[in-house]
Amino acid sequence: MRSKDRVLCAVLRQEPDAVPVDFSANPWVLQRLKTAFGVDDHRSLLDALGADIVDLRGVVDPMYRGPIPWRRTSAGGVQQNIWGMRTRISQTATGPEEMYCEFPLRPVQDPDELEHYPWPSVDWFDFSDFAGRLQPWRDRAIMASGASIWQHPSFLRGLDELLMDVATASPIGGALLDRFTDFYVAYFDRMFAAAPGAIDILRIADDLGMQDRLLLSPSAIREHLIPRIARLVDMAHAHGVKVMFHSCGSIRPIIPDLLDIGIDILDPIQVAARDMDPAVLKRDIGDRVCFHGAIDTQYLLPQGTPAEVAKTVRQMIDTLGRGGGYIVAPSHVLQMDVPLENIRALYETATARRARTALLRT
To answer: What is the pLDDT along the chain (362 residues), one digit of tens a residue?
Structure first.
């Protein structure tokens, strides 16, 4: 099976020749892995790991033609993107991490102030040669990512202020959620139309869970977020694109709501969070959704041994992959606290059955 076919088979909850594999890592881990594998480009790294999915972001993007810099750096090393989201590289105990800071819309008191904010436009992006640049990746499942209607507003407003906006029914919160929803619906609609049939998955990322509970009440999520997420899902499905929804944490109470609006792939199955037991999820909803992730990045990958990692990968394949409907992946972007030998153990174990199948066919 080609990588693309293997992934789409799993998404349809059918059993492929081998469980498909996905990969994501922060920039410093990417460079460390390229050095370790002796490769210098992203395709070669995905080949070395056996990854079946390519995330287009940072690999194949539309051409940016906007009137302001795509990214600029100001005093103190603070970087700002076209939305005005600001980040700074911080040194942690295990290595560098990019962290959000200086939330520019935190002081806003009146929703009319948002009208004067310099919002980006979909027209700043040129998709005219986009389909052609996707051609080299068509052997893999192609995923478009970056859509967000909750997390991205929090990077401008501050999570605490956005939570208060929702709790007090402030029109500022609703206006922000609508700004991002409208932008991403239009942006990805234009992307999918520019390359018909080429993109397989849209990934929406909106963390709604903490370790032991939801970030908002189920009723608030159903009122403020589910209808907006549904707009993205409906747009993607109209183009024949499957939808992956990412939320870390304990989100069990609102999973039925996500399935009801048509989510095809649930990511990342944070196994250490409350009520996110993979075996229970497979039993209860495995006939409705494909699972993605479940290889723990909180404890297992940073602190476990390669043997423990390999054992867990096999267990997850047996549990979540039974009958199809599972894509092996870390439960978060790989960070610098994960030893190289554990990354190797994850991907060598995940692709072992594929290698045996290929050997039997020769």
So the answer is: 999 999 999 999 999 999 999 999 999 999 999 999 999 999 999 999 999 999 999 999 999 999 999 999 988 899 999 999 999 999 999 999 999 999 999 999 999 999 999 999 999 999 999 999 999 999 999 999 999 999 999 999 999 999 999 999 999 999 999 999 999 999 999 999 999 999 999 999 999 999 999 999 999 999 999 999 999 999 999 999 999 999 999 999 999 999 999 999 999 999 999 999 999 999 999 999 999 999 999 999 999 999 999 999 999 999 999 999 999 999 999 999 999 999 999 999 999 977 555 533 44
Whole-prediction pTM = 0.96
Token pair listed for 158: 């501050």
316, amino acid identity: M
Contacts of 361 (CB under 8 A, 6+ apart): none
Q: How far is CA 355 from CA 50, 214, 347, in A?
A: 10, 40, 12
Tell me which residue of 147, 84, 90 sits closest to 120, measured CA to CA: 84
CA 210 to CA 244: how far, in whole Å?
19
**Cβ contacts of 215 within 8 Å, gap of 6 or more:** 163, 207, 208, 209, 249
